[in-house]
Amino acid sequence: MRQDRAVFGTGEWAQFTTNIITGCKHDCKYCYAKSMAIRFGRKSKTDWKDEVVNKVKCEGRVSRKGGRVMYPSTHDIYPDNLAYHLDFLTKLLQAHDEILIVTKPHLECVKAICDKFQSEKARILFRFTIGSADNEVLKYWEEGAPTFEERLESLRWAFKQGFRTSVSCEPMLDRNIGKVITAVSRYVTDTIWLGKANMLIARLKINGVADVSRAKQLQEWQNDDAIKALYETYKNVSIIKWKESIKKVVGLEIPTVKGKDI
């Protein structure tokens, strides 16, 4: 029989995901991709930030899928490997109708993507991850990622170039996410997604983070009462969307898709 399954994670944004790199220089403490790579022996706690490009995949053919493709989902777009990203995005656009580019954006990379794919802007949706407007907070959780100012400027640049833009505040990294929403709203043409930090302490431990005191504080800031208050504040703002982690708390319906035969 077939059993319906809840839509969560990347499935809330795209039908398919694809990647060309193992590891990520941003080396975010909470990274789910890092924890999975460690669990399955593809990377270690110490060498995750050493990016390894899958050149065979880069040089191969990209087959067509039947829906939106999210790129990337288990690494990021970093300047060091920009040429590979641009080449692979070219292949993705040749094969698919719509690409969702998800990144903690480096302005250099965003400018290059906008410049190269001006004629394809209708088929590209940027989703920039901005979990806090506080650079100390960002530096702690996302050590190798850009500052708030660079992310905001990247969003502004893509918007002014006529690309479709959106923002992901997942995970929200402090209790002041309203500062992010206020700063980015004027440059968002699509949506702003809010989400909690999922499986935070478990992932930190796998990823080699010994001190989980700030994680416990963050979890307290995102207790059910706080999430319900956040929802009440923004529930009527049309561009705000809620990830599954928040829908469960406030009682919103979680979409399902047909599962495989079991």
Topology of helices and strands:
Layout: E1 5-6, E2 16-17, E3 21-22, H1 32-39, E4 52-53, H2 55-59, E5 69-71, H3 82-95, E6 99-103, H4 107-116, E7 124-129, H5 135-141, H6 148-160, E8 164-169, H7 177-184, E9 192-194, H8 200-206, H9 213-221, H10 224-234, E10 240-242, H11 244-250, E11 256-257
Parallel strand pairs: 2-5, 5-6, 6-7, 7-8, 8-9, 9-10
Antiparallel strand pairs: 1-11, 3-4
Low-pLDDT stretches: 258-262
Q: Provide the domain count.
A: 1
Overall number of strands: 11
Q: Classify the helix fraction into a percent range.
A: 25-40%
Query: What fraction strand?
Result: 5-15%
Distance between the termini: 6 Å
Tell me the CATH architecture. Alpha-Beta Barrel
**What is the H-and-E element order?**
EEEHEHEHEHEHHEHEHHHEHE
Kindly name the structural category. Answer: alpha/beta
Q: How do the strands line up in the largest sheet?
A: 2-5-6-7-8-9-10
Q: What is the CATH first-level class name?
A: Alpha Beta
**Radius of gyration, CA atoms, in whole angstroms:** 18 Å
Query: What overall form do the CA principal axes indicate?
Result: globular
- Which oligomeric form is depicted? single chain
Tell me the CATH topology: TIM Barrel
Count of DSSP-assigned helices: 11
Biggest beta-sheet profile = 7 strands, parallel
> What is the arithmetic mean of pLDDT?
93
